[in-house]
Design goal:
Strand 5 and strand 6 form a beta hairpin. The chain is of the alpha+beta class. The longest helix has 19 residues. It is globular. The model has no long low-confidence stretch (mean pLDDT about 95). The protein is built from two helices and seven strands, in the order βαββαββββ. The protein has a seven-stranded antiparallel beta sheet with strand order 1-2-3-5-6-7-4. Helix content is about 15%, strand content about 40%. The chain has a single domain, classed as Thiol Ester Dehydrase, Chain A.
Length: about 160
């Protein structure tokens, strides 16, 4: 049985962009095809909450090969989007940190629906734990109000 959404659905709106694409990647090292967040619309570091989105279009680099004739947004890219949101949340809180947040693990991952162009893919992150060298977030992906994936993502702060 799918989980409930981490946050109320009315928070999934682009009416209030708090960090645009360039602001996100001024704090994250990913470049080119691996810039997987278009904007962050909600960020509350004290509460450990963040919401972002990625517009999935039919001209994106992965469409040609995954899957020809019926492109499906790869699950690993869904997870990478979630990890980037969690990393941004941590980096935004401590901009003096000069390293990066790398993958430490993924647990309890379930893909519940396919994500196909053209849609807006929402990414939700709720911090469960933050320590000196580790962050753990419960993350979800949502399209049109429907949960498409969920996972617990662990990030390691790498100097």
């Amino acid at each position: 049985m799918p989980s409930n959404l981490l946050f109320p659905e009315d928070l999934l709106t682009d009416e209030r962009i708090v960090h645009d694409h360039e602001a996100v990647y001024s704090r994250l090292p990913q470049q080119h095809e691996f810039r997987l967040i278009d904007a962050i619309t909600h960020l509350d570091h004290d509460a450990g909450q963040a919401i972002a989105y990625r517009d999935i279009a039919p001209d994106q680099w992965w469409c040609r090969g995954h899957i020809p004739g019926k492109p499906i947004y790869p699950g690993v890219l869904m997870l990478e989007s979630a990890a980037q949101l969690a990393a941004f949340m941590e980096r935004y809180h401590d901009p003096s940190f000069k390293g990066f947040v790398g993958y430490g693990g993924v647990d309890d991952c379930k893909f519940r629906r396919t994500v196909e162009p053209t849609c807006r893919f929402w990414i939700l992150a709720n911090r469960l734990e933050a320590r000196a060298r580790r962050i753990i977030c419960r993350c979800q992906g949502v399209v049109d109000g429907t949960l498409v994936f969920e996972a617990t993502v662990t990030g390691l702060l790498i100097a």
